[in-house]
Amino acid sequence: MNTTRLGALAHEDQSLHALAERLLALAEAGLPAMYLPDEETFVFTRAGVISAEGTPVLEQRGTSTRYAAITALGARFLPEDRQRPLFGGHTAQEFTGLLVERLPGVVNLGDAALIAWAAAETGHPKLADALDRVATLDVPGRPQYTVEAAWVLSALTAARAVVDVEERLAAARVRLLAARVGDSPLFPHATEPGLVPGYRSHVACFADQTYPLQALARLHASGDDPQALAAADACAARICELQGDGGQWWWHYDAREGGVVEGYPVYSVHQHAMAPTALFDLAEAGGTDFGAAIRRGLRWMTDVPELADPTGNPRESMIREDFGVTWRKVYRGDPKKAVRAARGLTTRVAPHARLAPLDRIFRPGAVDRECRPYEFGWMLFAWLGGPRR
């Protein structure tokens, strides 16, 4: 197992190293409860509810192909004997094989790209078949969501050492780089107009930043591409510049000028997994080291200013070993996401408008008590991944 990232964290901050180890243990303990052995897949979410007897319990809801693929991407870094309990007895490669076999029925580009990425990373023999399904779903000239376009690039980058994907890789690279608006370092929600209503086409989320910067960093690492690395570095620098005083990774940005539209919700997965994953990959590809920002974000998991009482003590913990989860997010509790809607509409015509009274009316102190498998999958990827030693 690669421990380079954890080792570096131990050198920088022993308390955060202990926190990362705690979260990794929780991921291994929590994922088996998210697996559905009869269907050989993962649930969409485990949500906290109150039972008929009046006790708090976790309710399993739905299934998710993309969360299953992300779990395989992260779990592959574990020793095989620790992979099997997560997948009903399968290794990560064997479980990826199940996902590959189901690809003819997959109609979502992002799902297919993640499966192909997992097939490449686990050395699955049917990688070429998985990439063919991605090509079928990725219709040339059609706008795509930025996150899914980034996953396509990551999948092709991971596959290029064993399959000839250079023509498709070049097209995926150009599409992602060309999606940016003017000189902004941030990425929009979609690669072209047509998928997002005009009134909010300028609004992009945190995932729209981390997955492209990760894909471009990995592209440079797989073969010299200074332009891709520079784009990844610029995006990372901007989101780190905007990071909250409490280490928060904010949720919605103005892709035109690189500011924050609305900070909340703050998601646990951004703090402990998605930001570290992308920023570690960037540094290891030769980009800027944003380790301090990673550590500030991770610390939020235990030092949550939004949940502090008047004396500074936490009203609630985001980490729940008793349930085998980390709670999903802290949010405002505003009806129908009113603050996000108001700021999205206002910043369309006035990019720097803040509507400050909304912060006083709708304070962020509500907790979304659910947990999804991909949160643990990316956590394993973030802290156990990296260059092999």
Explained architecture:
The protein is of the alpha+beta class. It contains 16 helices and 12 strands. It has helices spanning 4-12, 14-30, 65-75, 80-83, 92-101, 109-121, 127-137, 146-159, 166-178, 207-222, 226-242, 268-284, 291-299, 338-349, 357-361, 373-384, and strands spanning 35-36, 41-50, 56-63, 203-205, 252-254, 259-262, 266-267, 319-320, 325-326, 329-331, 366-368, 370-371. The strands form 4 sheets. Strands 1, 2, 3 and 12 form a 4-stranded antiparallel β-sheet that branches. A hairpin with a 5-residue loop joins strand 2 and strand 3. The longest helix is centred in the first third of the chain and has 17 residues, at 14-30. The mean pLDDT is 92.
In brief:
The protein has 389 residues and is of the alpha+beta class.
